[in-house]
Amino acid sequence: MSVLETRQLTRTFGAVVAANSLDVTIQRGEIVGVIGSNGAGKTTFINMVTGYLPATSGDILYEGRSVLGMKPRQITRLGLARSFQVAQLFPQLTVLDNVLMALAAAHEAQPSMLRHFETAEAVREARRILQAFGVAHYADSEASAVPQGARKLVDIAMALVSKPRMLLLDEPTSGVSADEKFPLMDAVMAAVRQSGVTVLFVEHDMEVVERYVSRILAFYSGEIIADGPPAAVLGNPRVQELVVGKRASAREEALA
Ligand SMILES: Nc1ncnc2c1ncn2[C@@H]1O[C@H](COP(=O)(O)OP(=O)(O)OP(=O)(O)O)[C@@H](O)[C@H]1O
Hints:
Layout: E1 4-13, E2 16-26, E3 31-36, H1 42-49, E4 57-62, E5 65-66, H2 72-78, E6 80-83, H3 95-106, H4 120-132, H5 148-160, E7 166-170, H6 178-195, E8 198-202, H7 206-212, E9 215-220, E10 223-228, H8 230-234, H9 237-255
Parallel strand pairs: 3-8, 3-9, 6-7, 7-8
Antiparallel strand pairs: 1-2, 1-4, 4-5, 9-10
Helix pairs in contact: 3-4, 3-5, 5-6
Protein name: Branched-chain amino acid transport system ATP-binding protein
GO biological process, one term: D-alanine transmembrane transport
GO molecular function: ATP binding; ATP hydrolysis activity; L-isoleucine transmembrane transporter activity; L-phenylalanine transmembrane transporter activity; L-valine transmembrane transporter activity
């Protein structure tokens, strides 16, 4: 059985068709990269699948069950977690306390019960998670004082504490320096392999995509114009013209 399946999934914003009848099937254990130029519909797709944006029409099946119309929390509880383009940490709390909060949320604790998640066992589990992501040395630092790459890792670690079976990452390397991006992705992938979670991530950096994924979905103007192994998709002339080329020229313009 597939982990995720969308059927004719569509979202419009007025006259803009941000997702046009998307049929996507993701199998267990796949690591899938989603690429596309600005405005191609990547975030719209992730937001619909995770319940942050209602679909205009179509269906979304997670492990064979429709999650259409469910709230983000309900979808997370079913085992489909996500991280955001900007790390969603409580800046004044320490990194350890952020992970403890995520552990409490994963157990659906009420605020009055949060104290129960500061047990020696919970702290040990939180430290183990930080260790798995290579950021244990930041455990007692305030989240706002931690470098961007490490903050992103903590954010992704927090998405994994609920032990999801599928993880959606929106631009894990955005805002991260060139030096940090491969160590960050190595740490994420090591943790992902350990947990066996299926991953789909949006990524603008083709070097990152090529290195870490087994399959690419290329979006353009709300449609998927190519779907397959990295070499085939990145070598596809339409992808080169409409996705890779556009990104390269946008970068050149920005540098000019
Ligand atoms: N809330 C909204 N209201 C109106 N239009 C929207 C809204 N969200 C997205 N759109 C439009 O839908 C289209 C797809 O946008 P989306 O953000 O999904 O693209 P993207 O591929 O994630 O782009 P980026 O790489 O810039 O994040 C764009 O034309 C965008 O302007």
